[in-house]
Amino acid sequence: AKKVIIDCDPGIDDVLALLLALRSPELDVLGITVVCGNVPTTQGAENALKVLSLLDRLDVPVYLGETKPLVRDYVDATDTHGADGLGESFLPNVTDVRPKEGAIQFLAQTLSEQKDVSIIALGPLTNIARLIQDYPACLEGLSELVTMGGSYKSHGNCSPVAEYNYWCDPDAAKVVYEAFESHPALRQKQIQMIGLDVTREIVLTPNLVEYMTCLSQEIGNFIRNITRFYFDFHWKQEGVIGCVINDPLAVAYCIDHSLCKGFSAYTTVETAGISLGQTVVDTYDFWKKEKNSHILTETDPYRFMTFFITHVFGADAS
Ligand code: BDR
Ligand code: CA
């Protein structure tokens, strides 16, 4: 199995991504590191433990990471994810296992000792930027970085041009992208960018959630509890039935690269002004820079949903 650490800010769709990762035999989840994003770090860690408890996987360690962006003030996303980050389901906290301190140290140590470890980053890139800045020697052990963030076609979800994860900590995103251009251990690799271009295609609808509850009462009801608020939000704000779920596609892509298609280019992230957090993709190679990213632009939502359901609910469900 592919060894992965999941860096996340749970978050409704982060929790769906964790469910997928933990139910996938193709992945060996070495640990979960939490960053501030949708909710503060401590709340995100509680939410990660809730999904581990549901799946009886409390053996997977959860580490607390950064509590604020590198430079900017922290802005959460509780308007979309609810006060508890899980759609105001207010599921009880896990009490017998607690999150551990030291996400960055855990990342550094695991990369150094185990090698060939991939990171799936589902939140702002603050933890990853700190890892690059503070422990550059361990990056030899990084096999692949898949990040949910950014938007190639310049259509954002928290400004006209910016996606939340990169908008929340644009300085961190810039550090990470630029490290894949300049760091000797990363220069030969490319960040896999699962941006809004592909994740916007992934829409969860109430009928799918109902179907999931038929496949497993326990997991289905958990998903129903945490997504209700998200459905209401989309219905009230946009008059649409169903909601975009971003993060699980990054996990699915990490398992099976044929789920998305894209192209390679140099990318950086804007850290000031009205385009704050925008991914600037040099599609036509004006700058003649190292191609530090692989920008995914196409996916097959039906294939993804089948993949999600069969992995989370078992092989004969589809
Ligand atoms: C991203 O922002 C968060 O709200 C979601 O969890 C996802 O990672 C989408 O822009
Ligand atoms: Ca997220």
TrEMBL record:
Signal peptide, first to last residue: none
Superkingdom of source: Bacteria
Pfam families named in the record: IU_nuc_hydro
A Gene Ontology cellular-component term: cytosol
InterPro entries from the UniProt entry: Inosine/uridine_hydrolase_dom, IUNH, Ribo_hydro-like
Protein keywords: Glycosidase, Hydrolase
Biological process (GO), any one: purine nucleoside catabolic process
Domain Inosine/uridine-preferring nucleoside hydrolase, first and last residues per copy: 4-305
One Gene Ontology term of the molecular function aspect: purine nucleosidase activity
Protein name as catalogued: Purine nucleosidase
Species name: Anaerotignum lactatifermentans DSM 14214
